[in-house]
């Protein structure tokens, strides 16, 4: 690798963009969009994130031990919420005061076992909602308390009936009411009434004590401004590396310019290296500018730089693979567009159908997670796994790109 | 044993495209200080041969060396030895002619003065600072030649170097190529221009269906294939042809001349087109 050759090739790339200003114009538009986003803050409050309305797309009901109660909940998920509610057992015990990690836009109701209170089962029920979006959990809580009350009311009625008590009279069916707070209150009333009726009897243990807690999940809500800024940053990388680079590389090949360079002292590896240096640098500078406009503090976070470096290598690998497979500039542009649409489609389908493994094979799945986390300074341990997965995927794409380019890229 | 004077050597070169054999056991040696013209109809194997020489196509058989280096195994040694002028221009159209040359001069580590020298050689100094997209086809072709000359290579491959050039520009190209040869460099050009071949080539090879069917100097080809016939038109308008290789026809022509019956007399000149047809049985494009 000779610096003289690299310098010439880098200079050539810069000159091409200075002469054909389409790429620079789009970069300017992205910066303008970012400036407008920063200037016209829709939330106008720095301490509260601007969230998407109804942004909780999934609610997880966590439990430690299976029971009839859980069976009842499982059997009575309304058809309209089946894609949104997941009832999952904790794979390992979590301490009572420990937190379970939630992904962005996900809430939960955690049923944690507590020591029995005078023989009465006792649970702590955590309602976990994304910070700033308490109302987003209402629909899930409404269902949870309604079905919980139905289940324990039926159990209490059976117990009383077995003791010869006129259950319908002393413990009438709860009124149909959609009020969430009434439902919570109704369960407490049921518990109190039943305890009074069965005081001193072993059957009083049929209804557990539910100790209610509410906790916000820090960073769990999708911050609209951060999300748009994340999208702009990601778009800038994709634009430079997945669209601009293949398009111009294929143009060079189509016009015989790659051949002319390849017949000069520049080796295929040096031509590739120049592209691998120039386009990520362009993408990183643009992405840094966009991220810095959104939140200058992000530039001081090592995770941000690690994310940018990883994603630029990955997007460049994808871009160069497209450039090697496409014969013409038009094919490269269409290839880039088709790739991005295909990946977006796969990710949406997987999300809708709760397919978790497949999306993790896409760099585009991890990228928004790590960028959003670092833009909002809400790093979780999972984000390090996302970064690691991104690094592996980026390496894979880069290797494929180098192999393809050396075999056929410049011909 | 290869002579030290041989610059390019093709020995039993075979190139196949699937079942089609584009180049079939081609043996050819080009010497230092030689301008060689490679001729042939479309699909004869000329371009494929050049593609092998510039490392764009691997040979399926045989051996190709340039300056004693194997093109397949010692490509890095071969690359600096040649300059290539393709048939289709491949410039950065958005840049000026000078900028185009600067990029390649930097790649070749050629001095900046060489850019001006090459621009002057092809008479493009005045247009040097204009964008190439405004150049005529001929100017683009001359810029290709200037680019190929930047590193002063000992070997040059040219594909139709004078296509789209006016007579003056053709003369410039011919002059440059002859000067290269005079300086001991080797030039291989493919062309369809028979006048060009006769004017500047030291030797000519004719390819047909991948095989070399004729290899000689243009003069030798002329001598071998010129018809010794005379076309005569008599005073009364009658047209006759006399074969000078036959005694009785020479005598008859002499009689007519003495009798003053000749209106006009034309000797048949060397006709490369006819020669080519005779050799290949194929219409030349």
List keywords for this structure.
heterodimer, A: 411 residues, alpha/beta, 2 domains, 13 helices, 5 strands, B: 285 residues, 10 helices, globular
Task: Give an account of the 3D structure.
By secondary structure, chain A is an alpha/beta fold. Chain A has 2 domains: 3-47 and 223-409, no CATH class; 58-217, no CATH class. In chain A, 60% of the residues lie in helices and 10% in strands. Chain A has 13 helices and 5 strands. A 5-stranded mixed beta sheet of chain A has the order 2-1-3-4-5, covered by helices on one side. In chain A, strand 1, helix 3 and strand 2 form a beta-alpha-beta unit. In chain A, helix 10 packs across helix 11. The two termini of chain A are 21 Å apart. The model of chain A is unreliable at 43-54 (pLDDT under 50). Chain B is of the alpha/beta class and 285 residues long. Helix content of chain B is 35%, strand content 28%. Chain B is built from 10 helices and 13 strands. In chain B, strand 9 (203-208) and strand 10 form a beta hairpin. In chain B, helix 3 crosses helix 4 and helix 4 crosses helix 5. The two termini of chain B are 38 Å apart. In chain B, 40% of the residues are buried. The A-B interface holds A 4-5, 7-9, 11-12, 15-16, 19-20, 255-257, 259-261, 263-267, 411 and B 54-56, 76, 79-80, 84, 86, 88-95, 99, 103-104, 106-109, 147.
| Mean residue pLDDT of chain A | 82
**What Rg of chain B is obtained from the alpha carbons, in whole angstroms?**
23 Å
**DSSP helix count of chain A?**
13
What characterizes the major β-sheet of chain A? 5 strands, mixed
Major β-sheet profile of chain B: 6 strands, mixed
Outline the low-pLDDT stretches of chain B: none
- For the biggest β-sheet of chain B, the strand order reads 6-7-8-3-9-10
The poorly predicted ranges of chain A are 43-54
Structural class, from helix and strand content of chain B?
Answer: alpha/beta
Q: What shape does the CA trace of chain A take?
A: elongated
Question: Biggest interface and its residues per chain?
Answer: A-B, 23 and 24 residues
| Proportion of helical residues of chain A | 55-70%
Average pLDDT over all residues of chain B: 88
Order of helices and strands of chain A: HHEHEEEHHHEHHHHHHH
* Number of E strands of chain B: 13
Question: Separation of termini of chain A?
Answer: 21 Å
- Give me the oligomer status: heterodimer
Percent of residues in helices of chain B comes to 25-40%
Order of helices and strands of chain B: EEEHEEHEHHHEHEHEEHEEHEH
